[in-house]
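Assemble and predict.
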Amino acid sequence: MRPAEDIVSRITRIVVTGAACIAGGILVFLMFMTTFGVIGRKLGYPINGVFDLTHFTVLTMTFLGMAYCGFHGAHVSIELLYQRLGPATRRILDRVINLVGCAIFVVIAWRTYVQADLVREINESSQLLEIPYYPFYWLAALGSLLFALVMLLRVFVPEPERDNDISEAGP
Amino acid sequence: MSGSLIGILALLGLFALIFLRVPIGIALALSGALGYWVMNDLDRTLSILGSIPYATAYNYDLSIIALFVLMGNLAMVSGLSRDLYAMARSMVGHWPGGLASATVVGCAGFAAVSGSSLASAVTMGRVSLPEMKRYGYGARLATGSVAAGGTLGILIPPSTGFIIYAVLTEVSIGKLFLSGVIPGILLTILFMIAIAIMTTRNPELGPAADRHSWAERNRSLFRALPLLGIVFIVLGGIYLGWFTPVEAASIGAMLTLILTIVRGKFTWPAMVKCVLETIKTFAFVYLIVIGAFIFNPFLADTRLPGDLAAFIGGLDVAPVYILLLVVLVYIILGTFLEGFAMLVLTIPIVFPMIKDLGYDPVWFGALLVVVLEMSLISPPLGLNVFVVKGIAPDVPMGEIFYGIIPFWLAMLVCAAALILFPDLALFLPNTMKG
């Protein structure tokens, strides 16, 4: 790997891992919040807004975790035809696929950002806690853009061999 | 061009993209977006791309995936899988083929805290394969029992298969989870019967291991009890209506975390790894769901699923034959499509048809998951077989596939039992409280 590619790769790794760590912190918060929500309800002290907050935590975890997932190549793809292609064709195909993926997520990021303005204008917010939606649209746009950048990186720096860590990724 | 024709072309394009190794979520999003564009106009397409990803992630039910995956990952860290196997081994290990049966029971137990077949196969395989090798078990039986036992991960709740099915069809996740309990136990017993038949025909396949004393059995049972307690609280809580599936998932993850701490297995690096793995899996599932949520409304717009359902419904054929045909198609698809992909790609078309035929969506979910399990061990792409190959690299692939045949047949018997006796899946969901 060339030095410039190495630096870009490293920076990307740091950024996506940082985002995933925040998402992880939110996951732990969700676990505590929901559990204490149940305990509170059973004891007659319900916590207001758990339902609302759960929606926002899921949204945040999703968009902050997507780039990390993309960076580590944790996605489902079928390799049946791919395996029959020559190495050069595979490389080209990989680049085209990543470029297409990047393009579609750039569009998603752009349109989500535009949507944020519309949501802001009409002052849309959550039902119970009345948390405005638009900052979360921004977050969704940012997460999509980060995912697109990871795919762009993969156009130039191929995905390293996958490690043997078995997570629960997969059915 | 008619809507249905556009739908068919979009499906063909989608399959072409998937077979060219485009990640399924991206293939779905791309085909869906292009399809919208053809059916409507660019403005509407762009507006959908700006709203659907957000709306999909703003979802209360999706939090179940993250919480149950966290619970499963924590269970792996805490060494609970080892305890489960040890318990099963001390109970049935001395039977002929007993270590293979213990593997299956251990997998079933682990499946009750993990939603993933791969995780179940890996976790139990690492513990049980060396033990079976030590006692001179035939490689076919040893690897077959791990690959097949692992598939219980998506049938016995919590199950990512059920969650995806629920998200795509809006069927109750709680009911779906409960629909997997009895079939999961039935399939575990069928696997054990298959092992007994194999070892009766050829005793050298699975020699009896040492018999553990009752004191040892009680000790191993005692060590596995906390995990069994968590399973009962989680599933019992859903069944009795004490809490929603999301709350059950939270409580399950929290209790597993406490157990990990109590057992002295908690370290910050392990916890961070656990949480990051969970986020990775969660985002991975979401990427597929977002693609499906862009593609499926487009497909519905083309009226292909509705037209197909109307056509099938109009045929002068008993619904059960159509159902059998659907199952057969799934079994064939399962030989070359990955389980998640199969679910996401087929549900929008198959589900309206099944509902039109009058079948219960919860029951069909359970049947579908059993068929997905078959795909996980079907050649040439059975994922669990590759996982087992990773743990036992010295066993040839052909041997492993040969070894899974009896288990595959047991799954077929389970699917047949579900078709003949729908109450196996529906009894618990129909009697659940709340």
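Chain A touches chain B through 67 residues (CB under 8 Å).
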